[in-house]
């Protein structure tokens, strides 16, 4: 659920990866293909789906908990707690790139195909290689479409109506985590910069991945 725009400030510098973590990056660090983890969704059994969503240059589709495991392993390997998921506010900041329009490129959804993979049915679709569409003005690929992206925050429909004006961290607790950005099978307004959904943190979908953030300084 969305609410009217509510301005917040980000007081710190950070880096965000230009695309989601790929299957190849996951396998290199974790020693497995993320697809090998439990897949209870019936959509994984559609003809050709497994092949379409497990190519090395495609996003790693995992649960929020899986993403946290990847991050912990990466931080241990590099000797520091630097990597993490973006907060929802950080994700929104880098998605909008200073705009207040439906998309970072404006309000004309007819231009969306230049910037996003979208509008495919489950039985014929699947996500695509990362970084194939136009990047946003800050150099990020696939902010709209292709796969939803986990963020750190617990979900609340009303949180941003009363959130801190600076560096909001999301609700202190909850039952579901936020995903942002829309995916290859989103419809309607699913690709708007403001679009958000929620899923249990252990949910492994065929269209949810994540990108990493690091603090600077």
From TrEMBL:
It comes from the Bacteria. Residues 165-194 are annotated as: Disordered. Signal peptide: none annotated. InterPro entries: CTDL_fold, Sulfatase_Mod_Factor_Kinase, SUMF_dom, SUMF_sf. One of its GO terms (molecular function) is formylglycine-generating oxidase activity. Residues 2-214 form the Sulfatase-modifying factor enzyme-like domain. This is Formylglycine-generating enzyme, required for sulfatase activity, contains SUMF1/FGE domain. The lineage of its organism: Bacteria, Pseudomonadati, Pseudomonadota, Alphaproteobacteria, Rhodobacterales.
């Amino acid at each position: 659920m969305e609410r009217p725009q509510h301005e917040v400030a980000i007081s710190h510098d950070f880096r965000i990866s230009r695309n989601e973590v790929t299957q190849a990056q996951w396998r290199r660090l974790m020693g497995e293909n993320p697809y090998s983890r439990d897949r209870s969704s019936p959509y994984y059994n559609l003809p050709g789906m497994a092949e379409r969503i497990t190519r090395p240059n495609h996003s790693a589709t995992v649960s929020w908990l899986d993403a946290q495991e990847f991050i912990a392993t990466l931080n241990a390997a590099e000797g520091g707690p630097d990597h993490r998921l973006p907060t929802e506010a950080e994700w929104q900041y880098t998605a909008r790139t200073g705009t207040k329009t439906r998309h970072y490129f404006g309000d004309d959804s007819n231009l969306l195909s230049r910037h996003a993979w979208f509008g495919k049915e489950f039985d014929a679709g699947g996500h695509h290689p990362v970084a194939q569409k136009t990047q946003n003005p800050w150099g990020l690929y696939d902010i709209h479409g292709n796969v939803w992206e986990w963020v750190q925050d617990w979900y609340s429909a009303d949180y941003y109506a009363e959130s801190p004006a600076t560096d909001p961290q999301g609700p202190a607790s909850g039952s579901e985590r936020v995903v942002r950005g829309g995916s290859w099978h989103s419809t309607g307004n699913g690709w708007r910069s403001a679009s958000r959904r929620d899923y249990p943190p252990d949910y492994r979908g065929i269209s949810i991945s994540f990108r990493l953030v690091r603090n600077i300084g």
